[in-house]
Amino acid sequence: MKRPKLRKASKRISCSKRYKIQKKVREHNRKLRKETKKKGVSKRVKKDLGVPNSAPFKEEVLREAEQRRLKIEEEKEKKRQAQREERAQKRKKDKDAASKETEPKAKKARQDENEKHLKKASGPDKSSKQFLCSELNKVIDASDVVLEVLDARDPLGCRCPQLEEAVLQSKGNKKLILVLNKIDLVPKENVESWIQCLQKEFPVVLFKASTQIQDKTVKAKKSRIVASNDVLDKSRAAACFGNSCLTELLSSYAAQGEASLRVGVVGFPNVGKSSLVNSMKGILACNAGVKRGITKSMQDVHILKNVKLLDSPGVVASPSNPPASMALRSLQVEEGQEGVLEAVRTLLKQCDKTQIMLQYNVPDYRNSLEFLTLFAKKRSYLQKGGVPNTEQAATAFLADWTGAKMSYHCKAAENHSLPAYLSDTVVAEMQNGWDLTKLKTGNMETLKGIKFPNQASSIGFTSKGPTAGLLTVSDISEVNPGVGSTEEGAEKNDEPEQTVEDSNTDKEPEKEPLKSNLSLYPYVFVTDVHIH
Q1: What is the enclosing helix (H) or strand (E) of 299?
Q2: Residues 427-437: what's their mean pLDDT?
Q3: Could you give the percent of the chain with pLDDT greater than 70?
Q4: Closest CA to 509 of 351, 385, 380, 402
Q5: HEC profile for 446-501?
Q6: Would you state the pLDDT for residue 386?
Q7: H or E element: which one contains 356?
Q8: Rounded to 5 degrees, what are φ and ψ at 134?
Q9: Contact indicator for 476, 470 with CB cutoff of 8 Å
Q10: pTM of the model
Q11: How distant, in Å, are the alpha carbons of 312, 428, 484 from that of 119?
């Protein structure tokens, strides 16, 4: 019994009980000895008497016995070594699985390069620029209508002059439509101004894709068990707007012809091509995610009886583009050609520091490294010893800007003029055959249904103009990588040295005047948005 004033119950027992236990143990042991004696089993190991001196060939017998003993010991040692190696491999496998996410970027790049060499031996490399360009050309050639998906946060930067020119010059009288996606991340006034600007060239459809499309099997399982108080998910990520307008537009155009309509969906990485296809289909037909370059080949998805969508890989950005365009729309970070820290540094130069501080709730910073350090502490991205993980913070920052999370906007051009490959005749031909009145009504309904962010809460971003793309293998071989790197090096020199302790980095880096390396679009962009 446990007494109240002691921490543990006492183990003391009465002497009669202790003697009784000892007697029972002695009787039990005596009984066991009798049973083993009856069976003839003895615990005592008989002593090896060895080989007598009078035995013939004594030395040979002893040598053979010693060899057998050594052989048995060697086999036991081999078994023990094999068990040790097996345990070490298991520990290493567990350690690799745990540290796979936090391993250095250089090590990841080497592993990816080794995997690429292995894939080359087995078959075509689906991540190569040549393969992506060939798949994109397949989609353009097989399409009757081409949907160029643009990110509403920077519509002009998502336009590819080479792609539009290839569609206009291709055979078969193809139609081109601009789809303004992610409009829920841009202020309403900005969306309306971009519609007025872009519809002077091509028909424009407003769209907001759903990012929570479920797989068909998961959807079927959930439909079997329907709760009585089932609530419709109307969250910002699950909602889809502009789906009915685009479906009606394509179905009415398909009714004019006898054959089924093939619609190609093209654009730069992370503009929402696969999400648009999934939203039109209503189920998870194509893989989509925040990571760039998930779609590697052409995929066809039937959305109606006479309409088929063709999903395509992202347009390969030319290295001659400005660093800001490459940071948002190229696959250099995923391929290991550019560090994620360099991409973040480039993006921070294009934004107002005050807006970044308010958006991410961080104090004043002097350079990109200090910002990433503060951002990592804010998000609890820490390594051993509480050291901020700036690389993980940079990856999260870049995912916010390329994914459907961060709200930023670019001003539309007030003075509009057609690019070199467009004329009034081509514009009239592209708008012919579409019900523009119904399209305008559908866009107005889409604008009414979406909750837009406030102008003050959206970050002002300076657009670098249209992004040049690569469509053929010859373009890839002719590209001079030094064009982009020279401009990038000039921009790097504008920022102070990447050390937080440096006291000379208090001054703001001087911003260069905006330059455009593409003469196809004579636009002028000025962004002067301030938070009040």
Answers
A1: strand 299-302
A2: 86
A3: 76
A4: 351
A5: HHHHCCCCCCCCCEEECCCCCCCEECCHHHHHHCCCHHHHHHHHHHHCCCCCCCCC
A6: 86
A7: helix 353-360
A8: -65, -40
A9: yes
A10: 0.63
A11: 22, 47, 29
